[in-house]
Design a protein that fits this description.
Length: about 240
């Protein structure tokens, strides 16, 4: 996992953004995580290996070998035309492309300075949430942690797509995308603030053995209500 997160080129101005892009690609469904050439190459190698190992034991071993060579040939052609292939959902393709740039050259010089600064600032809010949820006080609150993680990840992914993508990736006009971007950035920061506030409240909330074990959080009701409101803001925006 660590080798996937950190780029070969040190990311001085895109540290948080680079980490998010790597994790976003890692969280894609397996078939959308890789380019068509990669999947065809792996499938071809698997068919060839199966055909050569078990060809004498089963009647269709030769078919496996033929499929394997065909898949490898298609993988080679796909490599030559990689940029022209429309494979996977537009959002998934954008994330894959960004991660390939991150791995090969780093994002610092691949994104315009203004966009990079904007995305890095937003990614720092996402990182704030990730770090806050590592506190021992959140242990036992897995359900709420999952909802927060999911909302923060989806919001940061929307920000990346709206800022780096085109209409085909976002599904919005330029004017709609600008408005959605402003709202999403504000709501992500609001969520980060409320997660920090809830973390501080949970940490100081007296419980038996001072252990966060899923106990009732009625003692931190105001912070919990505000946290739910922050989650609802992002949820309403995603639905709309």
């Amino acid at each position: 996992m660590i080798s996937q997160i950190f780029a070969p080129v040190p990311a001085a101005r895109s540290r948080c953004l680079s980490a998010f892009v790597a994790i976003a690609r890692h969280n894609l469904p397996l078939l959308l995580r890789y380019e068509a050439s990669h999947i065809l190459a792996i499938a071809g190698a698997a068919f060839l290996l199966t055909g050569f190992l078990f060809g004498e034991l089963v009647s269709f071993g030769g078919t496996f070998i033929a499929i394997g060579w065909t898949s490898l040939a298609l993988a080679f052609l796909a490599t030559l035309t990689q940029d022209k292939l429309v494979y996977g959902h537009s959002r998934s393709r954008l994330i894959r492309q960004l991660d390939e740039v991150r791995r090969n050259a780093g994002l610092d010089d691949a994104i315009l300075p203004e966009s990079l600064a904007f995305l890095e600032t937003s990614a720092q809010q996402w990182e704030r949430i990730e770090h806050a949820l590592q506190a021992h006080a959140w242990h036992g609150q897995e359900g709420t942690m999952l909802r927060i993680n999911s909302a923060a990840h989806s919001a940061m992914e929307d920000i990346v797509v709206l800022e780096c993508g085109s209409t085909s990736e976002s599904g919005l006009t330029d004017e709609q995308a600008d408005q959605a971007l402003i709202e999403t950035v504000a709501n992500l920061q609001y969520l980060a603030d409320k997660v920090d506030a809830a973390t501080g409240a949970i940490t100081t909330y007296p419980r038996e053995n001072f252990d966060s074990n899923g106990a009732d959080l009625g003692g931190v009701a105001p912070e919990w209500v505000e946290l739910e409101e922050a989650l609802n803001r992002l949820r309403r925006q995603m639905v709309s």
